[in-house]
Request: fold
Amino acid sequence: MRIALFATCIVDAMYPETAKSTVKILERLGHEVIFPAGQACCGQMHINSGYMPEALPVVENHVKAFERSDYDVAVAPSGSCVSSVKHQHPVLAKRLGKPELKERAEAVGAKTYELSQLLTDVLGITNAAEQLGSYFPHTITYHPSCHGMRTLGLEDRQLNLLKSVGGITVEELPEADQCCGFGGTFSLKNSEVSSAMLDDKVKNICSTGASLCAGGDVSCLMHIGGGLSRSGQRPGTMHLADILASTREMEVAL
Amino acid sequence: MSQVFLGMPAPGAGNLFAEEQFPAAAHRELGNTQLRANLRHATHTIRDKRIRVVGELPDWEALRDAGSAIKDASMANLDQRLEEFEKNFTARGGIIHWARDADEANQIVTRLVRDTGSDEVVKVKSMATQEIGLNEHLEAQGIAAFETDLAELIVQLDHDKPSHILVPAIHKNRTEVRDIFLREMPQVDPALTNEPAKLAEAARLHLRKKFLSAKVAISGANFALADTGTLGVVESEGNGRMCLTLPETLITVMGIEKVLPNWQDIEVFMQLLPRSSTGERMNPYTSLWTGVTENDGPQNVHLVLLDNGRTRALSDKFGRTALNCIRCSACMNVCPVYERTGGHAYGSTYPGPIGAILSPLLTGIEAEENNSLPYASSLCGACYDACPVKINIPEILVHLRGEDVDSKRGKKLLPTQMDLLMKGGSWALSSGNHLGLLEKALPLGKLVAGKDKKIKKLPGIAAGWTSSRDLPAPPSKSFRDWWKSEKEGK
Reply:
């Protein structure tokens, strides 16, 4: 399969290892990965902050970068950005009276998958240790990010992949389905409420005794990691892709 | 409703406004640790109950779809439904009064109470009368209104405001309730304990005299059925049944959006509402009345149909489904923001996620501080999942943020930091080349970070982030650059 990687702006700029891990996993399975160079961002920061006209060129750029026909499916290591591509882009196009863009955006959205969705539903991965050689001999816990869980309906796809990694121990996170409080610019505009939500997430993670909290969205992990780091607690955070990419030969460090 | 559209319908008034920006109100409420403990306990209890009873129904999702479809259909022809209801309700001896806004509704109710010669009324819990501030209005006119729902009674005795639409005293624990009763209830047993049964008994004794003496009752309504002209109230305590049957005069205040097309529609809503609101399979009391029944129950039956911004909300094609709300309160019970700030932070009668969209839709986004309400959400989507009529609250929150930003364009002397961030971001993120160029500066981020590769203090709006979170130092190379050198360079 020819798979187009949508790295997402935050992974591209802040967490390049996660995109490299995504490429590694897919190549390990024998697929060809391409990186459409025109890509930048899904635009949800603008949309969720209410800056719709400013979001338009960002969305148009994404659609333009991904409407090429030389790939089978697109993948992003983010539930949130994929939700935006699938759901917010057509809504924005409709709001701004762009029926043609809406149609093009829907076509791109239909070809775009979140990583665990692609691995589970399209590529048939049920056992990461056996099929991907994933090996990560640590105790982790897992936070299901809201947009992946609720908007995309990922259910236990990410968790099941993690549980099937060789050597891993997965401790259940209390109140896992509760938002970490990130919410994009919510964390700036309503920073105190956001922090109160984060406090509870940090406490719950620490209560598991895990060495790190895994998840499928680096934005939420950046938020949770920032709170853990500030609280001086031991656990860190790591993206699902980085754990899946880890093998006996090339173990990813904590 | 006329076929000719004559501009934006009138905005709602009354208790629909945030009085201060949400972050400021939230700051105050977050500081109240007792409140946070009470809310956490109460919301988690109701959440768990709701999940349990919803899980019992194999067709829950189909019921949600049906509820949503019935509401949509009703809203699409609301004018015809209301006229049909009026015809049938009037034919059975009921009297309809149309109220454009809160002021008109208050004046109508005052006149109706005065006409009876009574100077006191008993009340069934009602959001519409909270919205228009009826109790305060009646008091100013020399008419005493007694709330008979236990939690409304607690709030009224404490001279407080409700903080939840179903559990108005959710912010109080039982010891606080006991103290209010001891302080405010005449003839209360001074040895009253904080046991729920004892508290309920004290309220029962306090209210019984009122039920038996009151000549006038005021209620809201959970729904009106157009094809039969029937009104319905759903409640738990039986106080509603007393008010709806004992007095001579019954005055109901109901928002125009509550009308459903057919009698059989309540089949769907009687399954959705109790499970979503109190987490019960069935509520204890459901009262239905169709006009006047001779020599049985109230002989003077009035209905005040309230617009108060509803036509305005209906005219917003991206926001109108907010009117489908059946006031179950499931959205606030699952909301992580509401759980931490409580209902008072929202200012309006309608708190939580539904309030954050409904209040600005009824009043207009520019009214008072209501423009801060759509931002009071991390867009986690728990509300949408819980909503029994599938109102896409996160999408409407985002829509209203757009309305807020647009409403300020061209009116500011200087752009805000957020304006600048978004404008710059629009340029940077609308092209791979632009973003690539900017990413060349990533190593500069290392200079801001400390020796531990963490950024601990940022200026301006970013200070909100670093108030409680670190930020990692950026990498020296973007993925884009790595790809170019590793993959395409080969």
User: Anything to note?
Assistant: The longest helix of chain A spans residues 79-95. The first strand of chain A starts at residue 2 and ends at 5. The CA atoms of residues 216 and 240 of chain A lie 5 Å apart. The radius of gyration of chain A is 18 Å.
